[in-house]
Amino acid sequence: MAAAHLEKLNDRQREAVEHGIGLPDGKIGGPLLIIAGAGSGKTNTLAHRVAHLIVNGADPRRILLMTFSRRAASEMARRVQRICRQVLGDNAAILTDALAWAGTFHGIGARLLRMYAEQIGLSVDFTIHDREDSADLMNLVRHDLGFSAKQSRFPTKGTCIAIYSRVVNSEASIKEILKSSYPWVLEWEGELKQLFAAYVEAKQTQNVLDYDDLLLYWAQMVSEPELAEDVGNRFDHILVDEYQDTNRLQASILMSLAPGGRGLTVVGDDAQSIYSFRAATIRNILDFPKEFSPRPADVITLDRNYRSTQPILAAANGVIELARERYTKNLWTDRASEQRPVLATVKDEIDQAAYIVEQVLANREVGVTLKQQAVLFRTSSHSSALEIELTRRNIPFVKFGGLKFLDAAHVKDMLAVMRFSQNPRDRVAGFRVLKLLPGIGPQTAGKILDTIAADPEPLQSLAEIPPPAKTGDDWPAFVTLVTALRKADAGWPAEIGTVRMWYEPHLDRIHEDADTRKDDLLQLEQIAGGYVSRERFLTELTLDPPDATSDQAGVPLLDEDYLILSTIHSAKGQEWRAVFMLNVVDGCIPSDLGTGSTPELEEERRLLYVGMTRARDNLTLITPQRFFTHGQNAQGDRHVYASRTRFIPATLLQFFETASWPKISAAANEQSSRQVRVDIGARMRSMWK
Ligand code: ATP
Ligand code: MG
């Protein structure tokens, strides 16, 4: 008889949960790979495995659990606690600090690097750059080298940082990356090498790490056998979800931490690999069993889907069967249903939005709450017409994977102040902060930053600088603020209130809509309250910022009902009773940008598969007959006539119920939609400037 908490699992899931547990002398089992299709209970099995380890005496503080997002990690921790409580009852009190090491690769990396900073020659107060900061620093360096001025055809800062990141993450040479993904940039190979070398040097002198450094430094750290052993010894078990979306660096980190695969469990589905644009490689999961010697990893596959109804699963299987290469096999389910997925044709994006709203409300009438429904799309901008319609109809929604709360200029300003006081050599933060002061332009800011960077005590040196011309009282107020922050006078999280009070007058001066922005600052203060220290707040917020929501950016609307809007990428691992996918047309999915090569096209197919397999009871794919593309020509937006995605050829139509939805009179619709689009579009853009 299985223990009560394992009763609900099927035999293979249970085998995975119990693998290597209860060996004689408390020995820890060897490597395990769980590879299986969507909705087969991989994540659920992983949560049970962690709980089962703890129930069997493993120390939760010595379990390293890595997931794809911070949200997924805390969800997993919650589930583990629930199962443990079920089994251990009140003893579960010992679990309050359980799973201290659950998080994303980047988050865990940041923590370990700070712990080991001294041993690896990092200064412990390093700050972390998000993608935008990294691009800004790349830009500063590029200017210093004179590349941008010399040649206007030199790649943009965004392209430079993308290439850099690809090279670093794939462990490939710059030439290989340029040849395969950026052939039009090949002529700049020499300059790019010079630029990247200078960029790396700039990061080091400024004591900053970018996203990629968190993995890179971590991998470097554990390539030293002694350090690898030291870090590896902190953990008895290492478990990784969504392994198909890891890159080479991540795999090599794991191999160094768990030599021979001791205590290592990875879980994934090759058919759901959708992050190759960030250098993730399907080879990691496919090669995993062979990585270990003398004994290869055990492999457990699961073939039963518990999530979706049979017709939804049949359609999703149909789509993925056309893929060129695939390891995981088709799934089966016993969830019978009469309802096939719907393939709905609508006239345009305006009708699409109206159609979705109507269906969402109809679902709610029959008891499917808004939260149990999601609208998924290939690219964040695809949902704008829908967002307008939802706002107009007063339907609350939360958008994942789109603009982030932290992208707002005023929020970045606040964080930059804190970052600057933590690490005054952080030039990007320094520029951002100094430019807030009236009278200080880029040149003066540059000089100030040069001066203080040359001093072993940068903040001391800041205090001694004669006040720059025209800064008046603002200068001493600024110096006092950063000095107090440095000394942590006010304490955490109270200090964030101090920063806000200092910042608000500047906000009033800079932005016309200062009042709305002030609400965000209050919210930032509220969010800060949830973190134990400034350092954890800055690190974790930078790595995995909260998503923008409909009426309260940043803070999830916990007790209200709201519809989920999400990019397919951000919907990974999740499920809803009803799922709508919009713009299921060629040009959107596959994206125009993803049709260049077979591997790219195959990744787009997997994206569609990931989206479809999020649905439990109802799935609706919508194809507008025409859609807007944004700003792709000199005139800005334009209409494009669309056809159904090539991933659903005529042979697959049998799996769908087709519907069309022409309702509103064409002329009237055209008129009103045009006006709304212009008004709101401009407003949305200006909000995030
Ligand atoms: P994805 O590939 O999308 O990440 P997954 O394989 O991780 O999916 P889960 O999210 O763990 O799948 O599970 C999918 C659904 O199936 C969840 O609702 C889960 O509760 C349910 N489920 C998993 N295993 C069982 C089981 N043995 N009995 C009943 N329900 C199950
Ligand atoms: Mg999962």
Largest sheet: 7 strands, parallel
Helix percentage range: 40-55%
Could you say what the CATH architecture of the largest domain is?
A: 3-Layer(aba) Sandwich
Bound compounds? adenosine-5'-triphosphate, magnesium ion
Low-confidence stretches: 548-558, 631-635, 664-689
**Count of the domains:** 4
Rg value: 26 Å
Placed side by side, the strands forming the largest sheet appear as 11-12-10-13-14-9-17
Catalytic activity: ATP + H2O = ADP + phosphate + H(+); Couples ATP hydrolysis with the unwinding of duplex DNA by translocating in the 3'-5' direction
GO molecular function: 3'-5' DNA helicase activity; ATP binding; DNA binding; hydrolase activity
GO cellular component, one term: cytosol
Family: Belongs to the helicase family. UvrD subfamily.
List the helices and strands and how they pair.
Layout: H1 11-18, E1 32-36, H2 42-55, E2 63-67, H3 70-88, E3 102-104, H4 105-115, E4 127-129, H5 131-145, H6 147-150, H7 157-170, H8 174-181, H9 189-206, E5 208-210, H10 211-221, H11 225-232, E6 237-240, H12 248-257, E7 264-268, H13 283-287, E8 298-302, H14 310-321, E9 342-346, H15 349-365, E10 373-377, H16 384-392, E11 397-400, H17 409-422, H18 427-434, H19 442-453, H20 458-464, H21 474-487, H22 494-510, H23 514-528, H24 534-543, E12 563-567, E13 576-581, H25 598-612, E14 615-624, E15 626-633, E16 636-641, E17 657-660, H26 666-687
